[in-house]
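Bump. Still looking for Probable Co/Zn/Cd efflux system membrane fusion protein structure tokens.
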Amino acid sequence: MFNMRLKLSRKKRYYALAALAVGCLLAGVMAKTHFAKAPIKPESLPVVRTQLIQAANTGQGYTYAGEVRGRYESQLAFQVTGKIIKRNVQLGSVVNAGDVLMQMDAKDIQQTVSSNSAQVYSAQSQLRLAESNLSRYRQLLDSGAISHAQYDQYVNAYDAAAAAVQQAAAQYTQGSNQLDYTLLTADQPGVVSAITAETGQVVSAGQAVVTVVQDGEREIEISVPENRLEELKSAGQLQVTFWALPNVTLNGKVREIAPMADPATRTFKVRVSLLNPPPSVKLGMTATVALAGGTAQPAFSIPLSALYQTGDTPAVLVVNDNILTLRPIQTGPFGNGTIQVLAGLQPGDRIVSAGVHKLTEGQRVKIAGDTL
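Sorry for the wait, here they are.
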């Protein structure tokens, strides 16, 4: 009887353990099924636009377009006011010293000269009369016929007549000079580069009507922005090429820099002297001036929106394996919505081009695309 009870007790425990094992197995299967069906949420990464720094944007050199000019350019003008009646030169005419370039109507000045000449004759006649009277009254004074006071009056009249002759002669000389001024002549040999008045035009004294480029040195005139002046001043030598002469390259040197910027262009006029220019270099030719043998420092243009300002140090966010790294940079001049980077970037770097102040260093991001 006891053995039968013992067998029943063992059978109950066996069934209980079997039911427990089946329950655990079902629970594990259900849990696995539940977790397998639950979706895994992906990591939320901010999307950024970037710019790839290209190697073609490096090594930026500076060249300046200019024009061949003469070192000495004379703007000639009449010294009197009048009407131009004759023009003897054209643009490009070669002139010598003393050549008459233009002629002015001299009728009125000629009348003035004639009037001054008549005044000279009149004054000389008065002087001769005063001289005769003085000679006669000197004899009367010597004979005691007149007083010394009377004699002094004739001496004074003679002196006044002599002064009147000098005055009339000076006026005549002045009028003659005015007559000569109606002819515009070249002071030095050269080439006519500009004519700003035509026959029949009334011009005032001092108004430039003809520009003559004197024979001699040739220069290139260029316009330089203020941020490049120091570089140009320190340049030992410049290279000059010509659009019309592709096989000609000349050496140049900065001779003169304007002390003030042009009020319209805000650039400075710079004159570059040409060393031993050939005869084929003509006035007015288009030239290009570049630094000779200079190695321009690498420079890149990036959008202003890519700047990440931390205190006084500008920086950019560089993307490496989708992780942001803050890198300080050295900036240059501003452009149209861009800024030049002089140091801190290399070709192949990828930077965030917008929304940089919403990001932090070390943050993982997703690249959407490059800016143009």
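Residues 195 and 298 are 46 Å apart (CA to CA).

Edit: fixed formatting.
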